[in-house]
Amino acid sequence: MARCKGHRSHDVQCKKPAGDGGYCKGHQYQANLTNICQGQTAVKNPCYGRVKTGSRYCRESHKPDFVQHVAPRDLREEWDGFDRRERRERIVERDGWLDAYSGMPIVDFYGKHIDHALDLQLPAEAANDAVVKRYDHGQTESQKEVLVNVLRDIINDLEYLRITSASVNVLKADASTKLIEARRAGDTNTTFTDCMGDAYSSKYPKHRLRQETGSIRKTMLKVSKHQIYRVEDEADDNKLTEAFLKAMKKYREGLRD
Fold first, then answer.
1. Are residues 56 and 168 in the same domain?
2. Do 46 and 79 belong together in one domain?
3. Angle between the 213-234 and 141-155 helix axes, to the nearest 10 degrees?
4. 145 CB-contact burial (10 Å; exposed 0-12 / middle 13-18 / buried 19+)
5. pLDDT tens for each residue of 123-132
C-alpha cells in the first residue's frame, strides 16, 4: 500500500496509508502548495504547517525577518541518562507516583516525560522581548548571558519539573507556543484556554487536552509566580532584568483565561 506523501511538523514523512491524491486525510491540505507555510522551523527545516487564507506563514517566527535573541533551547539543561533517571525517580517519589495533570497513578514509569511545569517558550519569549526593548539602550551581550544563565538555573530546578504523559507534554507545549504566536501577531483576544483547546500534534493526532486543562493552568500560574520571585532575588538589578520581569508578568496574566 502506498504511503502518504505528506509531512509531519518535524519534516518527517507521514507513515499512514495514502488516500485520494496520495495523501492521508490529515495531510490532504498539503496537496495545494498555497495551503503550506513557506517558512522554516527553528532548526531550518521546511515547515509543512497549514496557513490561514491570505497568509504565507503559519506563525510569526517562521517569517524570514524574524530574529530570536533568546530561544527555548537556550534555557534547557541537557541531562545524560543517569541524571535523567535520577530526576525522574525523585519527581515521582515527591509527587506520590501520580501524573502531574491527570492525577492518575503512574504505571509506565519510563514511558512518561519530564515536563517543565512552566513551558520554556514563555520565559524565553519574555527574555527575547526584554532584549529587543533594551537593544538600543545600552544592554550588553554579557548582561543577556547572565540573565539566561540565571533563568536556566531556576527553570530546571527539580521543584519546577513534573512527570506526565508524552502526549500531554507535547500538547501543553503547543498550547504555550500558540499563545505566544497569537501575541506576536497582535492578537490579545485569544486565551490560553483557547490555545489548550486547539493544541495539536501530528505525533498524537487523536489526543486532545481535556480534563487536564484546569490543573495545567493552576500549575503554570503557581510556578510562574514563584519563578518571578526568584528572578527578582537572584538576577542582576538592571534594566534588562526589569524588562524581562515586566514581560513575564504580562505573559503570566495571559495564563489566567
1. no
2. no
3. 130
4. exposed
5. 999 999 999 8
**209 and 133 part of one domain:** yes
Task: Kindly report the pTM of this predicted structure.
Answer: 0.81
Helix (H) / strand (E) element for 240: namely helix 239-254
DSSP SS3 for 123:
helix
Measured CA distances, 101 to 47, 52, 96 (Å): 30, 32, 13
Domain termination residue (choose one: 47, 66, 85) = 66
Same structural domain, 150 and 176? yes
Q: Which residue has the higher pLDDT, 203 or 2?
A: 2
Residue 21 CA: distances (Å) to CA of 9, 17, 240: 20, 12, 52
Cα–Cα separations (whole angstroms), residue 136 to 131, 139, 240: 9, 7, 12
H/E run at residue 134? helix 121-134
pLDDT averaged over every residue in the chain: 89
- How many CB atoms lie under 10 A from the CB of residue 80? 7
Residue type, 41: T
Residue type, 39: G
Place of cell 518571578: 228
Interior CA angle at 185 toward 190 and 160, to 5°? 65
Tell me what pLDDT residue 10 has. Answer: 66
Domain that holds residue 91: 72-254
